[in-house]
Design goal:
Length: 92
């Protein structure tokens, strides 16, 4: 067993998980900024409508997914963020 190779693989996985958490944080910031920009008196917003409004900010994230399925993974992260208790009363 090559210890150096195993340590390298572990650090790559740890860095990848850190990038996922950083991207989810970027998504959370983009969603909050988008919600803050809504008209006063807005009592709720649909998930798809919010996605359409926030995708421009989300796509500029330096930690975002890259490649063919990037949009799918970005939408999965978005869905996970907006279904959290912090947004569940406002986003339907």
């Amino acid at each position: 067993m090559n210890i150096k190779a195993e340590q390298s693989r572990f650090s790559v996985a740890r860095n990848a998980l850190g990038a996922v958490d950083a991207f989810k944080n970027d998504v959370k910031v983009a969603v909050r900024q988008t919600l803050a920009g809504l008209d006063r008196g807005t009592v709720g917003i649909g998930k798809d409508c919010l996605w359409g409004m926030a995708v421009g900010k989300i796509s500029k994230s330096a930690n975002g997914p890259k490649g063919t399925n990037a949009a799918f993974y970005a939408r999965q992260a978005f869905d996970e963020v907006v279904s959290s208790p912090a947004f569940s009363n406002f986003v339907y």
